[in-house]
Amino acid sequence: MAFDKQVTLPEGYNFRPMEKSDYHNNVLEILAILTEVGEVLESKFSAVFDRWSSLPDMYHPHVITNAEGKVVATGMILYEQKLIHEGAIYAHIEDIAVASSEQGKKLGYSMIVGLTNIAKKDGCFKVFLDCSEHNIPFYEKCGFSNGGNMMYVKFQ
Ligand code: ACO
Q1: CA dist., res. 1 & res. 6, Å (int)
Q2: Does the CB atom of residue 34 touch ligand 1 within 6 A?
Q3: Residue 23 CA, ligand 1 centroid: distance in Å
Q4: Ligand 1 pocket, 20 CB below 6 A?
């Protein structure tokens, strides 16, 4: 499937890799729009960020900042090395959230397109994501196809 979409951000907004200093720049507040974050002290954030950074072939956390430099959207693309399809790399998109006050400005679209273009540039075979039924039309607008069912077991 051809994927030729481009990031389209309002003036002054920026799509960029997450930085450790984003702990103090609204990242956890944005993620709380998506799900429960709980208490994540700076030491925990720092340890998680260091682990991501030590595995640059796997983790690519990104943010969108507004004209004031404040984080207003989050997203992660991560890579899974397979044996199938001649050792292909599958990409997975996770943790997509846009500040409530910034929704409807194509930031979600730009986050998905930006992450997908990174996977395309890196030669990934396919990009996957799981979403709620009500978000299916959003992801279709981002160029994704509905591939069926997601199953899971929850431990906590
Ligand atoms: N249903 C139908 N259409 C939608 C929806 C929706 N739920 N959300 C956005 N759209 C449409 C928009 O109207 C727009 O259409 P247009 O191109 O015709 O104008 C297009 O999709 C792009 O919309 P954006 O402005 O880019 O959407 P936004 O920036 O508001 O981000 C998002 C959408 C990410 C779903 C946001 O509403 C959000 O953060 N929701 C709460 C958290 C969430 O559900 N995150 C997704 C979790 S799934 C995952 O992480 C893999």
Answers
A1: 16
A2: yes
A3: 24
A4: no
